[in-house]
Structures are given as C-alpha cells and as structure tokens.
Design goal:
Layout lengths: L1 H34 L11 E3 L5 E4 L7 E2 L9 H11 L11 H14 L9 H9 L6 H17 L2 H11 L6 E2 L1 H9 L8 H9 L14 H16 L5 H9 L14 H10 L5 E3 L4 H18 L6 E8 L4 E6 L27 H10 L8 E4 L18 E4 H6 L3 H11 L1 H10 L3 H6 L16 H11 L4 E2 L15 E2 L3 H11 L11 H4 L6 E6 L5 E7 L3 E8 L11 H16 L15 E6 L13 E6 L12 E6 L6 E2 L10 E6 L3 H10 L23 E4 L5 E4 L7 E6 L7 E5 L2 E6 L5 E3 L8 E9 L4 E10 L1
Helix pairs in contact: 2-8, 4-5, 4-6, 8-9, 9-10, 12-21, 13-15, 13-19
InterPro entries: Beta-lactam/transpept-like, Glyco_trans_51, Glycosyltr_51/Transpeptidase, Lysozyme-like_dom_sf, PBP_1c, PBP_C, PBP_transglycosylase, PCN-bd_Tpept
Organism: Catalinimonas alkaloidigena
Family: In the C-terminal section; belongs to the transpeptidase family. In the N-terminal section; belongs to the glycosyltransferase 51 family.
C-alpha cells in the first residue's frame, strides 16, 4: 500500500513537472515571439480585375517579381488535395512542425549517410520562403520557430494561401496564380487536374522542370504523380485517366495589359492592395478600344492623334469602359496621358446645364424667344461658332444649334456663382479651384474640365438631375452621396431638346446619318479647335468622347460634330444594337401651356399664332405678351400721338411690332427692321422717360484703367426705341457728339486728367435721357 502511494505520488510529480515544463516552454515561445516578431509583408504584383474577376492588367511587384495574389476562393478542393498529398498530408493536424516526419527523415538520412529526404511541412516551407537562410541545422531550428509563429498568428487556410502565393516557378515567377495565368491563360480555380499536377511538381525542381521550354522530364514527373494520385485514391480513376491523356500545352502568354490608364490610376491610389476589382465590362472595353482605334486612325491623316472614351451605366454609375488614349505605348504622341482625367476646355458642353438652371429659375421655357445679336458684356463680346447672328431664336433652337449669345445672356441672368456652385456639387474639381476667376465665358469653354466630370454631369441629366460620383471599384458599394444639380423637370426638358435631329452638329455623311441612335447628345469645340467633344445618353448609358491632341495643337477640321459625334454614334450602336425602347418620362411637376409663337410668352389679345410649350407652374415667367402695340398716327402715318396730344378726330389706329431694343438695333443694321412707330407729335410737351435710351457702354459703376500719357478711347454705345432717329452724347454734362442710335461713338480722355469719376449721358431726339457713372484710373 505504501509502495502504491509512493508511485502515485511520483507520477503526479512527473505530470506536474511536465505541465510546468510545457508552461515554461510556452512562456518562452511567447517571449521570443514578442522579441522577434514575424509578421511578413509580402510585395505582390498588383492585379486589376474586371467585374467578373478576369485579370485585365498586371504589373511587377515592388521587388520585380511576378508574384500574383491567389485568393482563398481560387484554391479549389482539387488543388488543395493534390498539394497536400504531395507536400504535407498532415498539414491540418500539426502545429507547424511534424515530429513524426522529422524522426522518419533523420532515420532515413542516417541510414544513407546523406540527405535523402526532408521533414519540412508546408508551414516550414512558407517560413523559409519568407525568410530564406542557408541550409544549416541552426537555421533549421530557426525555420521551425518561425513555423510555430506562423501557426500561432495565422489560420491553416491563410498559411496554405501564403504557400501558394510564394512557391517558386523559376526566374522571377512566383505563386501558383502567376504560373497559371502566364502559362495556362487561366486563374487557379479554372485549372484542370493535369495542369494542377504540373504546377505542384515544378516548385521542387524549378531549374530543371522549367515551364518556359519543352520539357519531356516535366511531363514524366507530372504523370508519375498522377499515377500516385490514382493509387492512393486521391482522385477518381477516370479523372486521372483524362489527366494522363491531356497534353502538356505550355506557352508563355503575354502579361495582361488592359485598361492601362485606369490600372495605373487605381494601383497608385490603392497601394499595397494586391487585387483591385473594377466595374469594367471586358467585352464592352474591347469593343470601345477597337472602335476608337479605327476612328482615330482616320483622323491621324489630319494630324489628330488622341482620343478618350468613358462609358457609364446610369443606374449604378459604374464605369463599364475606360479608355485614356487609343495607344498607351505611343510615346510620340503622349499615349500615356490619361485623356479621361486630362483638364481641357469643355467648349459648349456646359450649355445644357445653363439652360436647365434658367428653366429652374423661371427665366426661360423652350419656346421663349431669346436675342441672338452682337452684345458687349463689359468688354467681352462673344460670337457664334459660324460668326453669324439670327436676331431672335427660341431657347430650344438656341440650345440645339449651340448658339453662343443666348447662352451667355442666360448665364448672366442665372449668375456665374450659381453655375459654379452646381458644378462644384457635381464634382468639378478644376472649376472649384478656378471659381474666383470665372466669368461669362465659362459657358463657352472658358474654364477647365475633364471627360470624367462631364460624363458624370450628363449621367446626372439622365437621372432626373441627380448627381452621384462615378464608380470604378466593384467592391466600393453604392455611394450614397447625391446632389440635386437641377430639377427632374429641367433635366427632362433639356433631354428633349438634345434629342432633336434638326441641328447642325448631326454628322452629315450618309454612313453616319443612316444609324443615328436614339440618344440625347451635345457637342463641343474649344477655342482654337483644340478639343472636340460629344457626350450623349439614353436611359441606360452615358458615353463621353473627346478627340484632339494631348499637345494642345489645334486642327482646322477638328469639331465635335465631325470628330467626336460619329464615334459616339458607333459606341451607342455597339452598346444597344437594336436601339432602346425605354425612354424618359415627363415628371409630374412639368406642365404644358399655350404661348405666343412669336415671343414664347403667355398669349395676349393680339397673339394670333400660339404653340404648346413646357413650363413649371408657379416658377416660369407668366408675363403676358405685348409684342404688338396699337398706336394713333396721322392719316399720312408721319406722326404718332400719345394720349395727351391725340386729336379728337383725323387720326387712325395702326399696329406696330414691338421688339427688344438690342434686336431692333441689329435688324436696323441688317436692313430688316420692321416698320417702326412714326416720330412723336413735336407739338406735344409730354416727355416719356420710361423709354429713355439704354447705355450699354460704358457700364454703370465700372472702373476703367487707361494709360496716363496716351489714354485709350472709351466706346459710347446705346440701345434706343425704334422711333428714335438720333441720340446726343454728353460727358460730364458737356455736349460731345450727335449720332444715330446704332452708331458706336469713341471719346478719349485728356492726357494727364484720367483719374476720378466720369458722368456719361445719352439723350434721344424725344428728350429722354439716361446717365451712367464710371471711374477712370491711370497707370
């Protein structure tokens, strides 16, 4: 009994000693792990994938390796079983070191007197690949310690993933994904059993079992392991038989180089991210590249070498195609410049937004007449693209024909700050930086924008005026950032106008006009014909096209209609070959009303011709049309009478057309002015100041800087009523000159007396007068 108690006490002491030793070893391991941490940071070759997971673009890693990241989802059961059977059958049962395998290897090596087998587990191989050291017993212990650290900090699947990412395949090729993609043209999860067997045997002898040359030995080793799989019942007999019959088709394929501009952009902004998933549709991207290359090949004969295209899905704002330039390798013409993000002059592409804002502000409706006459805006005198003026045009015609003067006038009415504010809401970064320097020329391209910004803006027009940022990352999720740039009603009206085909920017060549897609689109041509734009949309897609030279060189034939729109049409016909049946619906807030066909205002008693027009109830201007005025005139129609001087008899009533003063002055200069009201009865003493001439130059309250010794002339110009034959100019209440109402007059300050306030007055031949005050400064 005493003996039994003694042995039981001894056994208990042994267990206590053993447990204490384990705790001590474990504490020592934790201490060493803290002192010598092992948290590997692997430099992977960045991969850019399309929306379906296909590799579009790959680049060398930071250490110049083709080391592509294999994701856990790409490690198929077949790949896992083949690898574990060959390398480490007890991988999921040991803690990084397999003691039984070590004992077996030591015994084998001792019997043979040389190293005939190793005891490295997959975890130990990973440790060696991450921290390569010379083969010594000391370094073997180090390798075992590192393996234990890996097992402590990583899961088994993560360690297996690390192994597959680091396993060597010769030269600078590492990882099963690199080998699978570059030699079999597919990702690891699409490999056959024969291909998997090939990739599992190469890492043991990457120098002799080379993938980059015909290798009968590699075929023999592959088949040897396939038979081993069959004998061990790792895979079905028939599957192994099919694998043995499969030829060893090895061919080094070119590295994927798709979407190079987007790939460079994303890898620069997502550094140390091994796999970047994009929203690119590989099929659409390929067709965009083909169509653009064919299109620009024709324009190269005219010294136009660059183009950029962006295709956006309006529903999700996903970028499905991104082309920065037709040829990334074209160093002669700066092919590596990303035309999608290059800041260029937008030409007329901002006009739809200005019209939409004017519609929301109630300043215009589609049928409203706008003046298209020469106008000076404080020294800024824009012209139309064709340098022609049309007198008066409807707003819808002005937009569809891209007339400049009506657009500038509308921008003046809605204000430049409002336009800039909406553009900032729509993500226009350059305009946000330039906002303090922008003026009325902004609507004609006097600012900097990018194709990406413009495409996003037009996508907002296609989505009831709601702006959302474009998405290039498939994993980003839906961006909840939204901004109401314009109202749904305004965006619908602008869309209807931009859908019209009776317009000068419709390509006239027969092979383009035969297949005009049903889209809303707008062209733009920058000053000097350096940039040609065409941006269009339907309910599903928005497509932006830019054509030009990255060097900024202008070309006489370069216009949005000729250089960009034909490509835009081809792209839409490619996206939807059968056209689109769905189209935009008018929002409930949009109303209809009859308006005078000659002014676009609410019809008055004298309006005989009326048309239907869109309008916003309680917002759009409701002024009644008064373009006809009835005047009492003498029987010979040489005099007119006001109510004060009208005789009781001996007169007649006649209607005269009333035009805005700028339009009337333009028509007078053109010789097309309508019959005007005769001169007022000279015997009448009543003066009507409400119709006094309007001084348009100089501008009231402005400061004019002139040279002190040789001051420049100051232009005096006015707009007067149709019955005015002559006007009289006064400077500081001193008579200066008499002139016709449409004649510009030039006054020069006295040298040395150019500082101070200046009063300029204009009176017409009916005694009506207007004054303005300006300030002169010298330098």
């Amino acid at each position: 009994m005493l003996k039994f108690t003694y042995f039981r006490r001894m056994r208990k002491q042994h267990w206590v000693l053993f447990a204490g030793s384990m705790v001590a070893l474990w504490g020592l391991f934790l201490l060493l792990d803290a002192c010598f941490p092992f948290r590997p940071q692997v430099a992977y070759a960045p991969l850019v994938l399309d929306r379906d997971g296909t590799v579009l673009h790959a680049r060398l890693s930071a250490d110049d390796k083709w080391r592509m990241y294999t994701e856990l989802s790409e490690i198929t059961p077949t790949l896992r079983q083949a690898l574990l059977f060959k390398e480490d059958r007890f991988f999921y049962y040991h803690m990084g070191v397999n003691p039984l395998a070590m004992v077996r290897a030591l015994a084998s090596n001792w019997r043979s007197g040389r190293r005939t087998s190793g005891a490295s587990t997959i975890t130990m191989q990973v440790a060696r690949l991450l921290d390569p050291q010379p083969r010594t017993y000391g370094n073997k212990l180090r390798e075992m310690f590192r393996a234990l650290q890996l097992e402590w900090h990583y899961s088994k699947d993560e360690i297996l993933q690390l192994y597959l990412n680091l396993v060597p395949y010769g030269s600078n090729l590492e990882g099963v994904k690199s080998a699978a993609l570059l030699y079999f043209g597919r990702s690891p999860n699409h490999l056959s059993l024969a291909q998997i067997a090939t990739l599992t045997v190469v890492p043991n002898r990457p120098s002799s079992l080379r993938l980059d040359q015909p290798n009968d030995e590699l075929l023999a080793v592959r088949n040897q392991w396939l038979r081993a799989f069959r004998e061990a019942n790792v895979f079905p007999v028939q599957a192994v038989a099919d694998a043995l019959a499969e030829p060893l088709n090895l061919r080094r394929r070119p590295t994927p180089r798709g979407v190079p501009h987007l790939a460079r952009r994303l890898t620069q902004t997502h550094k140390r991210v091994p796999v970047v998933r994009t929203t690119i549709d590989r099929r659409v991207q390929a067709q965009v590249e083909t169509l653009t290359e064919t299109h620009i090949r024709h324009w190269k004969q005219r010294n136009v070498h660059n183009a950029a295209v962006m295709v956006v899905d309006n529903r999700t704002r996903e970028v499905v195609a991104y082309l920065g330039s037709p040829d990334f390798e074209d160093g002669t013409h700066a092919g590596q410049v990303d035309g999608v993000r290059a800041v260029r002059s937008p030409g007329s592409t901002l006009k739809p937004l200005v019209y939409a804002l004017a519609f929301d502000e109630g300043k215009v409706t589609p049928k409203r007449m706008l003046p298209d006459v020469p106008t000076d805006y404080d020294g800024y005198a824009p012209e139309n693209f064709d340098r022609q003026f049309h007198g008066q045009v409807t707003a819808e015609l002005a937009l569809s024909h891209s007339l400049n003067l009506p657009a500038v006038q509308l921008l003046q009415e809605v204000s430049v700050p409002l336009l800039v504010q909406r553009l900032k809401q729509a993500g226009f970064a350059t305009i946000a930086r330039q906002q303090h320097y922008l003026g009325l020329s902004t609507v004609l391209g006097g600012c900097g924008t990018t194709l990406e910004e413009l495409t996003a803006l037009y996508a907002a027009l296609a989505d009831q005026g709601r702006y959302r940022p474009l998405r290039t990352l498939a994993t980003a999720g839906d961006d909840t950032t939204t901004a109401a740039v314009v109202s749904p009603a305004a965006s619908f009206v602008v869309t209807e106008i931009l859908t019209q085909l009776e317009r000068p920017d419709l390509p006239q060549r027969e092979h383009h006009a035969l297949r005009v897609p049903r889209i809303a689109w707008k062209t733009g041509t920058s000053y000097g014909r350096r940039d040609a734009w065409s941006i269009g949309y339907n309910e599903r897609y928005t497509v932006g096209v830019w054509v030009g030279n990255f060097s900024g060189e202008g070309v006489r034939e370069l216009t949005g209609a000729d250089a960009a729109t034909p490509l835009l049409f081809k792209l839409f016909n490619m996206l939807e070959p059968n056209g689109t049946e769905r189209w935009f619906r008018a929002p409930a807030a949009l109303g209809f009303r009859l308006v005078c066909a000659e002014t676009g205002l609410v019809p008055g008693p004298a309006c005989e011709h009326q048309v239907v027009d869109y309008f916003l109830p309680l917002v759009s201007e409701a002024r009644v049309c008064d373009h006809w005025q009835e005047v009492r005139v003498s029987p010979d129609e040489t005099l007119s009478y006001c109510p004060v001087c009208s005789p009781p008899a001996g007169y007649k009533r006649k209607r005269y057309r009333r035009l805005p003063a700028p339009v009337l002055a333009f028509q007078r200069a053109q010789g097309t002015a309508p019959e005007v009201v005769p001169p007022h009865n000279p015997a009448c003493t009543r003066v009507w100041q409400a119709d006094a001439p309007q001084i348009v130059s100089p501008v009231d309250g402005k400061e004019y800087v002139v040279e002190r010794t040789e001051p420049a002339e100051l232009m005096l110009q006015c707009q007067a009523e149709g019955d005015v034959k002559e006007v009289y100019w006064y400077v500081n209440d001193q008579f200066f000159k008499a002139a016709s109402p449409t004649e510009p007059v030039f006054w020069q300050p006295d040298a040395g007396a150019t500082d101070g306030r200046l009063k300029v007055s204009c009176s017409d031949d009916r005694g009506r007068n207007t004054d303005v005050w300006v300030r002169l400064s010298s330098w």
